[in-house]
Amino acid sequence: MAQPDVARAAESHAYDRYVSTHILTRKALPTTASITARIPKLRALYGRYLPAAKTTPILDAGCGHGTLLHWLQTEGFAGAEGVDVSAEQIELGRSLGIRNLYVGSLEDHLRERPNAYGVIFMRDVLEHIPKKDVCSVLDLCARSLQPGGVLVVQVPNADSPFFGRIRYGDFTHQAAYNKSSLSQLFLLAGLGPFDFRPAIVLPLTIRTVRKWLSWKFFSIMYRAGLSAELGPGDYIVSMNIVAAARKTV
Fold it and tell me: Quick count: other Cβ atoms within 10 Å of Cβ 78?
């Protein structure tokens, strides 16, 4: 078993070269045009969680190169900010003209900002955090939310039969989650009420209608199988799941 300092060094090395060893091995570098093209999907998945006041402070925690932050700023949240441990990712985002990007530890950033944010997004982040640190990070998120604020996360969905493609598609991933484990974590952090949604948006166009119908058929059949074994339930079976939890006090 690797010693803790050796494991931390390996993880840091992976994030130092995250763009060159992970993003570029799967797709081309993002451009302003490519991240702008993703805005409709981001709006469909996360738009319901945006506050009415454009001055509300928003944090994109683990922002990567800033695709979500770019969307927030185009929606008028000019003060929205992002933090990520990967300097390579932040440098890429800044080269695309995305503002308010910072390199640093998420824990340190949150620790220094109690009651600071109306919304904290953690999109594709929680699965990177070692299990021993997850509860403390979510405690810091709760502490950094203003009363009535909301934490929004997207994670690999362990209830999906295909979750392994996400869970094991990145060396730095530590875990997958489902509604049950996320509910447990939110309650431990003192957050609630919470809700869950499938992280899938397939616009109904001529090009995607066959894909959409195939997905609907498969998801209905798979949920039926879960119901047969586990009993009726509101099962979410997309590869990723979106969850939101509010800070009520």
Answer: 12
What type of residue is 27? Answer: K
Calpha distance 174→196 (Å, rounded): 21
d(CA 34, CA 51): 26
Q: What is the CATH code of the structural domain delimited by 30-203+236-246?
A: 3.40.50.150
CA distance linking residue 166 with residue 43, whole number of Å: 22
Distance CA(126)–CA(152), nearest Å, equals 11
Rounded CA gap, 23 and 206, in Å? 29
Six-digit token pair at 144? 């950094």
Q: Map out the domains of the chain as residue ranges.
A: 30-203+236-246
- What is the rounded distance in angstroms from the CA atom of residue 127 to the CA atom of residue 104? 18
Residue 225 pLDDT > 50:
yes
- Which one, of 123, 119, 122, lies nearest residue 149 by Cα? 119
Give the pair of three-digit tokens for residue 91: 């440098």
The length of the chain, given as a count of residues: 249
**Residue-wise pLDDT tens digits, 156-190:** 999 999 999 999 999 999 999 999 999 999 999 99
Whole-angstrom Cα distance, residue 170 to residue 127?
A: 10
If you compute the radius of gyration of the chain from its CA atoms, what whole number of angstroms results? 18
Alpha-carbon span 150 to 28, nearest angstrom: 33
Q: 36, 100 in Cβ contact below 8 A?
A: no
Beta strands 194-198 and 240-246 are antiparallel
